[in-house]
């Protein structure tokens, strides 16, 4: 995945501090105080404030829901935002930003949500685009490449929801790829930008191909020129020798092709292009609203600048593909996605995003990893069934929110919103029912892939140890056999 991120993110701070997550701090603190008997009336009031309820409503949107339930609840939350935005503008924008930056597995939901809101109130759509632009530029300024990827991915979903034009998305890509035109560009710098672009392209490629095929081909040609020159650059820094020394398997009898992750990602993108950019595992709730989304107003973004950073001298060498489970005998009847398939990258990338987002909270991390099948199309994972929801629906949260707010929020389940199609089935075309991933194997591979990462893991070993324990608890029915 994104091995070239800022090394300052490689482990927790030596002073014992940890990353601050807006989801965890106050709620964890309140629970601790209440358990010890320190809670008071004021604290309980803050916990149940309308702002807290709005935050909760956005955070749980899409959790453990079927595709049909996702569409239904996006409609309802869109109505809540339209009703309450004037009173809680700053809070709504902040929460949406935190959601797409810390819950990247649900970016497709938040993108569609903003698209529906943008139909009725383009000023809200413009504000979200501005917030996303500021977030991306800030990440680029700080060298926070992981954050830049997540913001760029949300721009891709805003393109799908017609909040920004496909040509605007291509302009963003072009702004980032100007890095490749710099004289004597460092490999770390070029590698990072190309990886960010390629990792977000599958989410929006169909729209780009449909609306701006010539510009898309130009972007791909620019990347192809870099990929072609990349091997020569590796040889110049003796990277091939180092790559061979860290390859998981050495010898003639290797279980899979020894390829580095950037090379593999380019192969996956090329195969996706040959398939006319169709990726069957992605959920596309926005596709059920295309007729009305086309009538919405689109918004422009400012030009992005990628500044140089001192740490760019680090992490210049390729990282090899790491796999553990390769074709067991008992899996002969299952058509698994091959590493050359873009689906292989997307699923693994999301798993690593979840680990990175929740490395301060192993319980939340294990929960979202367990629920990963709900973030992809049905049959993406074998031995899973997402046709029935497993948790309290957003409708119950909306009921609580309606009770707490001074003014009623009209979000009844049978409410009809003019111009919005609420009866069409979710878009799950081209799903191959005979193929799939094994969730527990993907999770274990990615965890150990980070543990064995050289020269050191991203986080302290105790985190991976604790996470594996939590995963074993939640997936005890299958993980014990892995």
UniProtKB/TrEMBL annotation:
Checking InterPro entries in the record gives: ARM-type_fold, CBP80, MIF4G-like_typ-1, MIF4G-like_typ-3
| GO cellular component entries | nuclear cap binding complex; nucleus
Q: Its domain of life?
A: Eukaryota
Q: Where is this region: Disordered?
A: 1-48
Per UniProt, the ranges with Basic and acidic residues bias are 1-28, 36-48
Q: Which Pfam families match?
A: MIF4G, MIF4G_like
Fetch the SMART domains from UniProt: MIF4G
What processes in GO biological process is this protein linked to?
mRNA export from nucleus; nuclear-transcribed mRNA catabolic process, nonsense-mediated decay
Q: Which residues form the MIF4G domain?
A: 51-273
Q: Name one GO molecular function term.
A: RNA cap binding
Checking PANTHER family in the record gives: CAP BINDING PROTEIN, NUCLEAR CAP-BINDING PROTEIN SUBUNIT 1
Please state what the protein is called. MIF4G domain-containing protein
Origin species, per record, is Diversispora epigaea
């Amino acid at each position: 995945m994104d091995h070239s991120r800022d090394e300052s993110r490689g482990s927790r701070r030596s002073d014992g501090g940890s990353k601050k997550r807006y989801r965890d701090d106050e709620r964890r603190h309140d629970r601790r105080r209440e358990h010890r008997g320190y809670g008071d009336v004021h604290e309980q009031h803050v916990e149940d404030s309308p702002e807290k309820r709005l935050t909760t409503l956005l955070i749980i949107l899409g959790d453990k829901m079927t595709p049909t339930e996702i569409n239904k609840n996006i409609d309802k939350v869109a109505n809540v935002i339209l009703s309450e935005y004037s009173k809680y503008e700053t809070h709504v924008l902040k929460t949406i930003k935190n959601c797409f930056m810390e819950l990247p597995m649900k970016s497709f939901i938040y993108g569609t949500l903003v698209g529906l809101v943008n139909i009725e109130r383009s000023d809200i759509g413009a504000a979200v685009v501005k917030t996303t632009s500021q977030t991306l530029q800030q990440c680029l300024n700080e060298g926070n490449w992981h954050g830049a990827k997540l913001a760029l991915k949300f721009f891709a979903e805003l393109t799908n929801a017609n909040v920004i034009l496909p040509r605007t998305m291509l302009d963003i890509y072009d702004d980032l790829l100007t890095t490749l035109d710099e004289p004597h560009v460092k490999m770390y710098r070029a590698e990072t930008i190309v990886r960010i672009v390629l990792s977000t392209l599958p989410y929006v490629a169909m729209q780009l191909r449909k609306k701006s095929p010539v510009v898309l081909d130009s972007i791909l040609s620019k990347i192809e020129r870099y990929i072609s020159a990349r091997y020569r650059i590796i040889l110049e820094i003796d990277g091939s020798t180092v790559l061979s020394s860290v390859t998981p398997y050495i010898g003639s009898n290797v279980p899979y092709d020894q390829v580095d992750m950037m090379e593999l990602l380019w192969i996956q993108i090329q195969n996706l292009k040959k398939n006319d950019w169709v990726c069957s595992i992605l959920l596309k709730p926005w596709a059920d609203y295309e007729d009305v989304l086309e009538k919405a107003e689109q918004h422009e973004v400012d030009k992005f600048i990628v500044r140089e950073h001192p740490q760019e001298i680090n992490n210049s060498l390729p990282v090899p593909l790491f796999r553990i489970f390769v074709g067991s005998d008992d899996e002969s009847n299952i058509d698994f996605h091959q590493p050359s398939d873009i689906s292989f990258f997307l699923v693994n990338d999301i798993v690593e995003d979840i680990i990175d987002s929740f490395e301060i909270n192993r319980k939340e991390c294990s929960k979202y990893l367990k629920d990963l099948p709900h973030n992809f199309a049905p049959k993406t994972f074998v031995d899973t069934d997402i046709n029935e929801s497993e948790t309290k629906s957003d409708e119950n949260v909306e009921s609580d929110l309606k009770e707490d707010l001074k003014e009623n929020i009209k979000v009844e389940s049978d409410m009809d919103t003019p111009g919005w199609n609420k009866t069409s089935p979710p878009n799950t075309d081209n799903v191959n029912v005979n193929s799939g991933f094994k969730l527990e194997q993907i999770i274990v591979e990615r965890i150990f892939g980070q543990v064995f990462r050289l020269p050191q893991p991203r986080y302290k070993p105790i985190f991976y140890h604790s996470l594996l324990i939590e995963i074993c608890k939640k997936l005890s029915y299958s993980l014990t056999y892995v």
